[in-house]
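Q: Give me a backbone?
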Amino acid sequence: MPIAFDTTGFQQHDQTTWVNPANGDQVSLTYFDLVPDLPASLDEMPKLRHDLAVTTGDVGCLIEAHHVRLGDVPALLQVVKVPLPDQPSGQVFIGSFTVPKAESSAVLKIQAAERGTTGTREAVLVAQLGFDGWVMPHPYAPEVEGRLPFHKGDDPRYDPQFADHPLTRVRAWAHHVIRTARVDPRFAALAPFQPGAVAAGPEVGSTVTTVVPGLPIGGYLPLWIGDECTFWRMTSPDAVLEKLALGVLARTPLTDRRFRDLVALDEASATITLLDRYRAEDGGIAGAAAGLTRVTALEAHEALTTDTLLEAFRWIGRVSAAAAERGEYVTVEPGRNTAELAEPYVLLAVQEHEGRPVAIAQTAPTPPAETPMWLGQSSLNAPATGESIEAGGLLAMYAMNTWGEHPLRLCLTFTPH
């Protein structure tokens, strides 16, 4: 067959079908000795997405479509939802890779159906987000009113809350396929579906494990995998810091007003994908990849020096200034604090007071009287300037020194005004 892929966790049912016995997900690989029936070539993604959204609307809903690569070969990734056949409720989620050639194509596909109680993901998210704006115009074809609606609940930023939901599994499988699958060189060498098509870089809206990053210190980045804090050395720290904690990454909610950044970790390849927070104008969700090396807690802790600690908390000061510009507060707190605000913490904000912006730092518990800058106070404020706002980073460092909490186990939480 033209595509080689990892079948770990699946049992082969026949020559072209594999089934996961744990959840019933089914993977199939099919070769078509026909000209592909795609409505446009891969270098015409706006038209291709539009037409696919229209045709899929007759039977369900196209959730996303991306131009990706399997190895070095251009392919089309689609994620679709359709109603469960012969049932009053429930959905089947389908992820498919199509490798189109001038006179043939290969399609690798997974189908994951809802089982048991259906609609749980939607019910939970409607309760969190509200009905207002839940159903949205399709980003690829706003005029389409499909058999199933395009709604907020299918956004990949909510996958972490529903680790075993079939849509989450489809995206995780697709991410793994993009990273590991290979196309037979003889098939890859066939004439392309449209000569001159230009392959784009992958736009992956999938995840393997979504994790919360901690504070980057001395070239190391803690990643919270559930309740476990793991430690990683960054290959390119600057590439991570270009996006981390600046309001551009996908987020996970702690409450309806407290949010943390979220990245997608692939432990097998030791990479994280820095998923964008918002969909692009074309409807896709982009993400830059960054390499990591997993290390012991001891190695990460040994990287903590006076200089690296100062630089990390100065970075927090810059982060708080950027947050103020977009109308958010920043809380420095232990990563284990995963709900409402709880001690210990430092909250950094800019608020209007008598018509003027004021930089505010609040902490709990109140630091001892000898703590630098705080001097026994739990709240400090000053006219908001670039210098006074960024000074909040050092205030957070001095408060943290009194907590008995290691800096590598802290996280940043964002709250809108």
In short: The chain is about 20% helix and 35% strand. Residues 195-207 have pLDDT under 50 and may be disordered. The helical segments are 45-56, 120-129, 166-180, 185-188, 237-241, 297-302, 306-325, 386-400.
